């Protein structure tokens, strides 16, 4: 089906943005509903609306796997099936021209198998007053992306680092830093990896790449980065490229120090660097699947609301969607509307209802859509 059809007057009709949606167990179904409601409200003025392309598979969370299966081999089998399916779903979205997918939390082992195959990096710009830090988490290699071989009383995990992937991660990080700081002034480039375990290969790759790119890249052990962070802080416009072994643990701490935000309220983006993926961006909440809250209408929707606003602005042409959403969220805070984890007494549905009541959609404009941001079947 063509992306745009002719109107009766003979002018092209607006293309319909297509956004992917992948849902995991736990509170995934509830948050998927939040995403659809908020995205729908923010994009309602678009002539063709927005089409959600939902994955037909409900992916496991770690808790659902352990709850339903005791056999390690079966858990490993289902983990692989989820990874294979989600990879195919993302590749099909990209092939159809779709550039964004929102995913609720799924089992980490399945997720990181996909991130290795699609060469994903997590990008988060953190700010504290006038100081900003761009965190780029290398999710495409290392311990997190390994595969398991089981023997009685033993798990052997095999992992890989490669020069090719390292270069792709660094190049994307530099490109993104220059986009975030348009004057091109990147204060410092720091890499936090356990490179001492790799026989000198990793830092040699980085040294060679830095020479070719004409930049200075400092490679540190994670404990050195922590010590410097505590003792001196990091200068404004630091580009911090980090192995996931450290960055996953430190992300919430950096949020507290630089982002002045809670993990439960935060969404982030994962960019697929695989050459065949066309830069597909996956949006997610920073918090997990919260299986203990499933079906209780109590999960905090703020991170999902923010993800919907980012998707609306970046991929549906709705300029000002993020600002309008943040204004509405601030109004809810002033009114004391929130879920129990934030000290409130409201349900998920009540919070979203209040948000949509406070949301000024008239403050959101519509930019001309690029064909690169839309897709269809």
From TrEMBL:
Keywords: Manganese, Metal-binding, NAD, Oxidoreductase. PANTHER family: D-MALATE DEHYDROGENASE [DECARBOXYLATING] (PTHR43275). The keyword Manganese applies. It comes from Streptomyces showdoensis. GO terms for molecular function: metal ion binding; oxidoreductase activity. Its cofactor is Mg(2+); Mn(2+). It holds the Pfam family Iso_dh. The keyword Oxidoreductase applies. The lineage of its organism: Bacteria, Bacillati, Actinomycetota, Actinomycetes, Kitasatosporales. Residues 18-355 form the Isopropylmalate dehydrogenase-like domain. This is Isocitrate dehydrogenase.
């Amino acid at each position: 089906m063509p992306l745009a059809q002719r109107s009766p007057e003979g002018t092209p009709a607006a293309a319909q943005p297509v956004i992917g949606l992948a849902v995991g167990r736990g509170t995934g179904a509830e948050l998927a509903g939040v995403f659809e409601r908020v995205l729908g409200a923010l994009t309602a003025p678009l002539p063709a609306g927005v089409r959600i392309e939902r994955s037909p598979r409900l992916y496991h969370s770690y808790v659902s796997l352990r709850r339903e299966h005791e056999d390690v081999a079966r858990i490993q089998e289902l983990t692989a099936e989820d990874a294979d399916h989600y990879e195919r779903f993302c590749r099909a979205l990209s092939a159809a021209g779709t550039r964004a997918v929102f995913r609720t939390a799924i089992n980490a082992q399945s997720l990181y198998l996909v991130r290795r195959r699609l060469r994903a990096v997590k990008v988060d710009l953190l700010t504290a007053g006038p100081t900003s830090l761009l965190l780029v988490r290398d999710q495409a290699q290392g311990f997190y992306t390994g595969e398991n071989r089981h023997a009685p009383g033993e798990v052997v995990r095999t992992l890989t680092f490669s020069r090719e992937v390292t270069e792709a991660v660094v190049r994307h990080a530099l490109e993104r830093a220059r986009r975030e700081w348009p004057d091109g002034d990147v204060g410092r480039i720091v890499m936090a990896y356990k490179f001492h375990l790799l026989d000198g290969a990793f830092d040699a790759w980085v040294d060679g790449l830095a020479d070719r790119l004409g930049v200075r890249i400092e490679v540190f052990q994670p404990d050195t980065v922590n010590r410097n962070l505590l003792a001196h802080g990091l200068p404004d416009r630091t580009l911090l490229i980090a192995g996931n072994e450290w960055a996953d643990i430190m992300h919430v701490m950096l949020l507290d120090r630089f982002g002045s935000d809670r993990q439960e309220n935060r969404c982030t983006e994962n960019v697929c660097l695989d050459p065949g993926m066309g830069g597909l961006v996956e949006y997610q909440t920073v918090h997990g699947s919260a299986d203990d809250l499933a079906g209780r209408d109590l999960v905090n929707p703020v991170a999902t609301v923010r993800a919907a606003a980012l998707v609306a602005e970046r991929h549906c042409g709705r300029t000002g969607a993020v600002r309008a959403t943040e204004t509405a969220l601030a109004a809810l805070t002033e009114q004391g509307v929130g879920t129990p984890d934030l000290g409130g007494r409201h349900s998920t549905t009540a919070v979203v209802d209040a948000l949509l009541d406070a949301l000024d959609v008239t403050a959101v404009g519509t930019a001309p859509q690029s064909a690169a941001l839309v897709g269809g079947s």
